[in-house]
Amino acid sequence: MTTSDQPRSVRRPRVVMLVGNFIDGDSRVQKEARSAAEAGWDTYLVGRSRSGKREESKLGEVTVVRVAESMAATRYRSAHPHRRGVKGLIAYSSQDVSRVEHQRQRLRQMDQAAERELLARRLSAGADPLAALFGKAGLTAGGILVRARGYWVAARKRAFDANYQLAQQAPSSAFERLRAKRGGDRSSWDVQPRLVDFEDSFGRAADQLEPDVIHANDAEMLGVAVRAAARARAKGRKVAVVYDSHEYTAGDVRPEDVTWAPVMFAQERKYIAAADGVVAAVDNFADKLVEHHGLTVRPTVVRNMPEASTFTVAGGKEPGVRGRLGLGPDATILVYPGAVTPIRGLDTAVRALSKLPDTHLVLMVASRGGHVAELVALAAELNVADRLHVLDYVSVEELTDFIASATIGIDTLRRIPTQELTITTKYWSYIGARLPVVVSDVKAAGELTRRLGNGEVFEVDDVDDLARAVRVVAADRERYAAVYTDEMLAEHSWEGQVPALLAIYSAVSGLTPGAVETPDSVDPVDSVEPVEPEQPEQSA
Hints:
alpha/beta; eight-stranded mixed β-sheet; six-stranded parallel β-sheet; disordered C terminus
């Protein structure tokens, strides 16, 4: 039975939120989903699965679906690196071809010994002299060809190995980066195959959940949402798309993945006109979207501020991070909850510990690998490892109270365009925790801190200046914390952002929470067919 043939019933209007991460630790999408559900929207939050299998859970009234990713495109790209330079012209096309050809060549060489033995047996058995002569000549010629082929196979394998190694260090060539900037889907999918995997898994979920609104978080989900909405409209269903820009894609810098930002900007440029509504995380991002894409309507700004229910008293209601570490009231504790990458500048804070003998630095992270491990190694090298503490994330509901017992919240951003313009989520959490701050002098955060008077600003990457700022705030912490009045916190709460988000849902869909007519069908969550990855460990 097709959807159009099914009997009609009623249900609440449905919003499906797509986010290309594991959902855990993403306070923005969690709060958006909970707020939509509390307002009466039938809400599904769709993210990635760590297990490689489809997972379903509840977040209050929100249904959380973690899709399984096939990872087929990503694995193909890894095994088929782009050929570069003169050597790339002779390199094998893939890892599998290289392995198979090398294996066959070894077998050919081994086979030569067997051929010589067989000829010797024929000769000893009294073979015809002319046949023996031709046999010896053929064996000699064959041996020459096998050896020559061996040199060729070895050269092609060495070329592939060198190309493969280069691809691990820099996945995209200059030519590919140039193509990516042009914005075509083919070139974008070549250099960022995750977009193909996202389409395969998230697009499937969006189709089967039959939303009224698709909320695409970040540029990697924008194309997925637009295409899903187009497919739905072709079947006679009205689906609206809301694009939520968390980052300034045009100014993003990712040294570890240099094509990510240009591809995401190209995706944004191509599909943003097809979005029925646009949301931005900060005012500066909204202005840049208008500037870059010629939007006639300024995006709705929904700031990722903490919920009022998580606001706490000075020092926190529970022992929090200070109690977790077993540190007394006189210890200076710098806290940082969130993503840890080189561009965040946290090595500056680690280096400053050597100049702040009574100070501890706490990183609250999702993983202890990658750059976190590098920072731990740096701390050991500087003999401050005992004062660098790495803790796991805590839940969004617990975060502000947990960090409130620290002395100072830090934000050590380096100078790249997107970080010059943003106010990070952690900054709003520091306000909710009534924590004084020490931040680098990037434009937005520096200006806000000077205006509020809730902390000190240091020069980007200046270890001595960071240490100075910490000493100044720690010496007069109560003065900096005094700006956090109840009225000030109320102005910086998530509840103040929710009406704008709900208004855009209603505006783009023409629906308000209540009942809408829909075909009777199986629960859409149960109908989502998992896409099982061939190698589950890859999806983590």
